[in-house]
Design goal:
9% of the residues lie in helices and 33% in strands. The chain is mainly beta.
Length: 96
Amino acid sequence: MAKKNKSSLPMNTFSEIPVPCANAKKIVATIKHSGKISGYKLSDGSIVDKAAGVSIAKKGEISGVGIEIRNGKEYLKSLPDEAENNNLGSLPSISN
C-alpha cells in the first residue's frame, strides 16, 4: 500500500484546479466587505471581485489557487503547498 502525501489530500476537495499560464498573476491581498472576502488584489495591482477572480483563474491567469464550491457558489482557495504565508487567509486584507 502506497503512502499518501499529507499535502495532497486536500487537493481532492477542489472542484477544479486550473493550470496557470506562464504569465499568471498571484493574489497579493484579499478585499473584504463585512469581514468576508469579496475580491482580490493581484500582483499587477488590479483588483477583481470574487466572481471575476474565479473566471480568470479558470483561464489560468491566476496561479496558486483552485476552485471550490460552497452553497452553490464558486470561490478561490489556495492550493496546499506546506507554506502558510501564501494562503489567502494569511495575505493582507483591504476593507471596502
